[in-house]
Amino acid sequence: MTGYGKAICQYQDKTIKTEIRALNSKNLDLSIKTPNLYRDRENTLRNLLSSSLERGKIDFSITLEQDGNSHNACGINRTLLKTYFTEIKDIARELDVSINDNFLSDLIRLPDILKTQTQEVSDEEWMAVEGSVKQAIADLNAFRRSEGKHLQEDILQREQKIRGLLDEITPYEKDRIRQVRERINRSLKELSESIKADENRFEQEILFYLEKLDITEEKVRLRKHLDYFNETLTACEGSGKKLGFIAQEIGREINTIGSKANDAAIQRIVVQMKDELEKIKEQLMNVL
Fold first, then answer.
1. Per residue in 183-217, pLDDT tens?
2. Do 98 and 17 belong to one domain?
3. DSSP state of 115
4. Residue 194 and which of 4, 48, 158, 180 are 20 to 30 A apart at CA?
5. What is the pTM of this model?
6. Rounded to whole angstroms, what are the CA distances from 277 to 104, 163, 227, 250, 255?
7. b/e map of 219-228 (b: 16 or more CB within 10 Å)?
8. How many other C-beta atoms are found inside a 10 Å radius of the C-beta of residue 250?
9. Together in a domain, 66 and 137
10. φ, ψ for residue 23 (rounded to 5)?
């Protein structure tokens, strides 16, 4: 299920911004980007996200902005810089090469001139970061719940549409029996006028043939599957995969009804049922 969550917190001279973006996916696929300062806490973040978000393609990031007045981030190795400067001037004199004193900007790029001071993350700072992450997760889940309500309404409407189409099949079943009788009788007459079918045997064969075409059991099972689908959709959280399995069973019963139909009108209804089911399956890809 898609969604977006964001949280911003302030800790001393630092502004910590947390963002989470979620896209549809059958499994949980985490992508985590954090400043180097929090890199050793990545496993903690991963566990927190996986326990709260269930599944989806998740892009998680923390960005850190620090007050410009802070001097904790990095410094210049003055002693090494002076050594480089003196050595380069001496070499230039020996080689009788003129150099400009403004080459300091180039010296800054030499190895180990800029030194990063290691910062430790205090427990208080990490509590602030963790609180920001939890707030972003809550924001994302609120977004997902809002989208989920719209999805639930759409899926329930399509499920009810399948029920209505199933009821529309009933009137055609009686006509189908009559049509089968007439078709078999007509075929017998076309073979030969001299053939006279035994009425009792004819009825037995008709009953045997109609038993093969009977869709009563499929209709009963389909209604049961629809009831179970409805209960699961309205009562359970995190039931996306389960609903997918139930939808597969619904599809099997619809397909069997279509293969047994032997009637154009029923086949048209079956096609409409399949269309609604496919739309339900598409929406289930967005359900956790």
1. 766 766 666 565 666 666 666 666 666 667 778 88
2. no
3. E
4. 180
5. 0.60
6. 71, 11, 15, 8, 11
7. bebbeebbee
8. 24
9. yes
10. -125, 165
